[in-house]
């Protein structure tokens, strides 16, 4: 068995007025709790260091850039790296990345147990809008503040396994899991900030949002025979509710542990990476019936039915 004791560190709301130092203290408390439960890896949400700022319409680029990290680790976040190295614990979390040449990405990283960054992912599937729409009560403006990721869906050999990452809306698309699955991924780490109300369909509330969260993650895990750790930032941020529902899902698509609150909450589960082997043999070794000539529409729009 190749065991990774994984801690899914759900975080409650972060208000707009709260600084990174306050947030990092909360993250450290969750990390210390995870250490007490024997965790090898702790996974935090998307944009874990700040409020979910893409809900705010901003026109001043300097105001926008205050939410971004120009280096990682920086002074505010370094205690997280130092504590993780002290505990001998790998870490994954999401943040807004501003590159030295001025590009803006919604990013997630993975460290090893010494605190060194071994993997970086930049969110590909950006939801929402680029401009303010007064008709929408729940704005989602990621397209305004972020560029689509430019490094695809890589995987990394770490923690005696093959690890991948995705961010929030990425989890809803089967291609996300499949591209990593074709690289042999054994565990996918996903952080999210999901509004409790669909910004494009206001009658879709939290129950449906939680259902879709489970459906997407469980399907991705089962169809690619991998563990999936999906971690929320949840609760009411400055009047904007977000769902919780953090889950760890096994390679059979079964939820093995799920958050019960919308607050800071730690879920810990011992994940056997060897549990992925049977499903991968079934999916890949015995898949001669998957003939490439039948899948042209996946790689080409030729002949595709246009949307209404």
Would you mind describing this structure in some detail?
This protein has 8 helices and 14 strands. The mean pLDDT is 92. It has a 6-stranded mixed sheet with strand order 5-4-3-2-1-14, with helices on one face. Strands 6-7-8-9-12-13 form a 6-stranded mixed sheet, covered by helices on one side. Helix 1 packs parallel to helix 3 and helix 5 packs parallel to helix 6. The relative contact order is 0.16. Strand 10 and strand 11 form a beta hairpin. The protein has a single domain, classed as Carbon-nitrogen hydrolase (Nitrilase/N-carbamoyl-D-aminoacid amidohydrolase). With 308 residues, the protein is an alpha/beta fold. The protein starts with a strand and ends in a 9-residue tail after the last helix.
In terms of topology, how is this protein built?
Layout: E1 3-10, H1 20-36, E2 41-43, H2 61-65, H3 78-87, E3 90-98, E4 104-111, E5 117-122, H4 142-145, E6 155-158, E7 161-167, H5 174-181, E8 187-192, H6 206-224, E9 227-232, E10 235-237, E11 240-242, E12 247-249, E13 255-258, E14 265-272, H7 277-285, H8 296-299
Parallel strand pairs: 1-2, 2-3, 7-8, 8-9
Antiparallel strand pairs: 1-14, 3-4, 4-5, 6-7, 9-12, 10-11, 12-13
Helix pairs in contact: 1-3, 5-6
């Amino acid at each position: 068995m190749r065991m990774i004791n994984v801690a899914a560190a759900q975080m409650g709301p972060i208000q707009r007025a709260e600084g990174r130092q306050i947030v990092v203290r909360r993250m450290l408390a969750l990390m210390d709790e995870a250490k007490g439960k024997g965790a090898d890896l702790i996974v935090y949400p998307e944009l874990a260091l700040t409020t979910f700022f893409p809900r705010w319409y901003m026109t001043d680029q300097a105001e926008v850039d205050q939410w971004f990290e120009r280096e990682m680790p920086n002074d505010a976040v370094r205690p997280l790296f130092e504590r993780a190295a002290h505990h001998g614990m790998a870490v994954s979390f999401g943040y807004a990345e501003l590159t030295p040449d001025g590009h803006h990405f919604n990013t997630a990283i993975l460290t090893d147990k010494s605190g060194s960054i071994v993997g970086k992912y930049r969110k590909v599937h950006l939801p929402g809008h680029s401009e303010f729409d007064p008709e929408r009560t729940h704005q989602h403006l990621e397209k305004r503040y972020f560029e689509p990721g430019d490094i695809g869906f890589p995987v990394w050999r770490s923690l005696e396994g093959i690890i991948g990452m995705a961010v929030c809306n990425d989890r809803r698309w089967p291609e996300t899991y499949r591209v990593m699955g074709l690289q042999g991924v054994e565990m996918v780490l996903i952080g999210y900030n999901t509004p409790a109300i669909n910004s494009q369909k206001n009658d879709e509330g939290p129950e449906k949002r939680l259902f879709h969260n489970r459906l997407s993650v469980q399907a991705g895990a089962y169809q690619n025979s991998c563990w999936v750790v999906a971690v929320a930032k949840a609760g009411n941020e400055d009047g904007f509710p977000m769902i919780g529902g953090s889950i760890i899902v096994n390679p059979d698509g079964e939820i093995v542990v799920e958050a019960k609150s919308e607050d800071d909450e730690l879920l810990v589960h011992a994940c056997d990476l060897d549990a992925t082997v049977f499903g991968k043999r079934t999916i890949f070794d015995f898949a001669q019936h998957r003939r490439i000539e039948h899948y042209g529409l996946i790689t080409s729009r030729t002949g595709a039915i246009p949307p209404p």
